[in-house]
Amino acid sequence: MMAINMRFLTISHINVSAGQRAAMITPEQVGERYLAVHHRMFRAVNDEMSECGLSLARTKVLMRLREQGPTRQSTLAAHFGLAPHSITDIVDALEGQGLAERRPDPTDRRAKLVAITDAGGACLSVAYATRERLLKQIFGTLGQEDLATLLRLLDTLDNAARPLTTSPAAPGLQVAPA
Question: Which end of the chain has fewer beta carbons closer than 10 Å to its terminal beta carbon, N or C?
């Protein structure tokens, strides 16, 4: 049996055997374990998506372009909380693959818009299916009750971490550079 005190983020095990003392699990231990699992899952998804030509970062940028239409790089950088050079690297890579293109901005002749190409749309569909399959494979091991609990805990942790970040990126949309 396990008791969880969310206020202090401590977990204690109630042992059935007499004479065994329950070991306290610290928030640092849980945090380290979370970071390790996050890193492993991120690598698994990113590595397999890279095999179909897109990293998670490039996929998220293409998804945004498909949803929003042609967009300035500065807008993309602000949306994802990236430095201008990081979004330039991603767009350069997408353009080099023929998945995105820079076009003149009709409202400002000095500016460029980034747009997804037909090839980018086709590649995005394959990458999205790959991402969905892997996330189902990983999180499908949990039952509905565990999924609901995990989502609630992640929301709690996200709310605790939010004031600690300076990035203006939208929730859940952080992108690592290409």
Answer: N
d(CA 116, CA 94): 9
φ/ψ of 126, rounded to 5, equals: -65, -45
Residue 101 bridge partners (DSSP): 115
pLDDT band at 1 (very low <50, low <70, confident <90, very high): very low
Q: What angle do CA 84, 85, 89 make, to 5 degrees?
A: 120
In this structure, are strands 100-105 and 71-72 parallel, antiparallel, or unpaired? unpaired
H helices of the chain, in order, are: 27-51, 56-68, 73-80, 84-96, 118-139, 144-161
Which three-class secondary structure state does DSSP give residue 16?
A: coil
Token pair in block for residue 111: 């500016």
19 vs 85, residue with greater confidence: 85
Mean pLDDT of 97-113: 93
In the chain, where the domains are located: 55-164
Give the dihedral of Cα atoms 33, 35, 36, 40; nearest 10 deg: 140
What's the longest Cα–Cα distance across the chain? Answer: 78
Q: Minimal CA–CA distance to 90: which of 104, 100, 105?
A: 100
55-164 maps to which CATH number? 1.10.10.10
State the average pLDDT over residues 95-117. Answer: 94
Here the tokens at position 25 are 């699990």
